[in-house]
């Protein structure tokens, strides 16, 4: 059989299921040992079974692979043509096995995690350090944004997991959520200015007469603060609006206005800020870990979820 025809048939049969993978293992063993009995010992199979599979492979390809004259085992032209191809197929299979094994055992992989800025500062560093210590080969990609933006990123498949604030917006896609924590919100202001409201806990209604710095659209903190003010019958007044967390804290530190932020952020915000509790019914938000309901997170993401939820 011409060499190119044999190679083409071998490719077709190997990847269509006509050629058994184990037959190639036996063929390579015989080709390398030039002895059926030693080949059978190498692959831990009875010699008659090995010989039977080699004959079945030859029938499948329509060509003899070995010359068995006078007890000497040599490769025919067809066998010589098949040997490098068989070795390549076996090597590819081994590579695939190792790749899958590494992913299954979390030696490699990738997690695309979204989180609000307050959680990137307060919660995630210790969690990610523990995960990275246990699985240093897994790549961690972090998207820092507001909850509404993160819900949209989950919906379009750009994230595997996201730490978001509940409740979900009305038009949110089908997401599976697990509540992680509830955090209190506080008011921050410049430490160089007199405390708002005289220094005691500040009712939401007192924000009516206070200038505020506000997050950009897409932050759940913006929606939560505005909704609380409207429930008291007024619209908040913004000196500056449109910032991310660090910017809003900087504006408050500079005395441009008050800001309503999660309490956990204040511990990492540095000097220059005064913290004032909110009076009456506390203003809180619930943080949940979310992923798309219709798509199972990758193995690495499931492990991170286990650490966060546990």
Task: Give the N-terminus to C-terminus distance in angstroms.
Answer: 63 Å
Helix content: 40-55%
Q: Tell me the major beta sheet.
A: 7 strands, mixed
Task: Give the second-level CATH assignment, the architecture of the largest domain.
Answer: 3-Layer(aba) Sandwich
Q: Report Rg.
A: 33 Å
Beta strands, count: 11
String of helices and strands? HHHHEEHEHHEHEEEHEHEHEEH
- Contiguous low-pLDDT stretches (5 residues minimum) are 1-18
Characterize the overall form: rod-shaped
Summarize the structure.
The chain has twelve helices and eleven strands.
Summarize the structure in words:
It is built from twelve helices and eleven strands. With 310 residues, it is α/β, with parallel strands linked by helices. The chain starts with a helix and ends with a helix. The chain folds into two domains: 102 residues, Orthogonal Bundle (Arc Repressor Mutant, subunit A); 177 residues, 3-Layer(aba) Sandwich (D-Maltodextrin-Binding Protein, domain 2), CATH 3.40.190. It is 45% helix and 22% strand.
């Amino acid at each position: 059989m011409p060499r190119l025809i044999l190679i083409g048939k071998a490719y077709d049969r190997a990847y269509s299921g006509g050629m058994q993978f184990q037959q190639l293992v036996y063929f390579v063993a015989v080709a390398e040992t030039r002895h059926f009995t030693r080949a059978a010992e190498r692959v831990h199979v009875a010699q008659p079974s090995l010989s039977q599979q080699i004959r079945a492979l030859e029938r499948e390809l329509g060509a003899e692979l070995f010359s068995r004259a006078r007890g000497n085992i040599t490769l025919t032209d067809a066998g010589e043509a098949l040997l490098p191809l068989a070795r390549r197929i076996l090597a590819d299979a081994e590579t695939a096995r190792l790749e899958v094994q590494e992913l299954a055992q979390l030696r490699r992989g990738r997690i695309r995690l979204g989180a609000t800025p307050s959680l990137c500062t307060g919660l995630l560093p210790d969690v990610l350090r523990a995960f990275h210590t246990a699985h240093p080969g897994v790549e961690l990609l972090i998207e820092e944004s507001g909850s509404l933006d993160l819900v949209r990123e989950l919906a379009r498949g750009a994230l595997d997991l996201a730490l978001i604030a509940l409740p979900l917006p009305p038009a949110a896609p089908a997401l599976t959520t697990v509540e992680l924590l509830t955090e209190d919100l506080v008011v921050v202001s410049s430490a160089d200015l007199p405390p708002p409201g005289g220094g005691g806990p500040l009712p939401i209604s007192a924000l009516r007469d206070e200038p505020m710095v506000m997050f950009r659209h897409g932050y759940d903190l913006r929606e939560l603060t505005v909704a609380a003010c409207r429930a008291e019958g007024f619209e908040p007044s913004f000196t500056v609006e449109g910032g991310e967390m660090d910017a809003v804290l900087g504006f408050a530190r500079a005395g441009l206005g008050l800001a309503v932020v999660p309490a956990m952020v204040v511990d990492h915000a540095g000097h220059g800020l005064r913290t004032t509790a909110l009076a009456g019914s506390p203003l809180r938000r619930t943080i949940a870990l979310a992923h798309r309901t219709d798509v199972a997170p990758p193995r690495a993401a499931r492990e991170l979820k286990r650490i966060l939820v546990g």
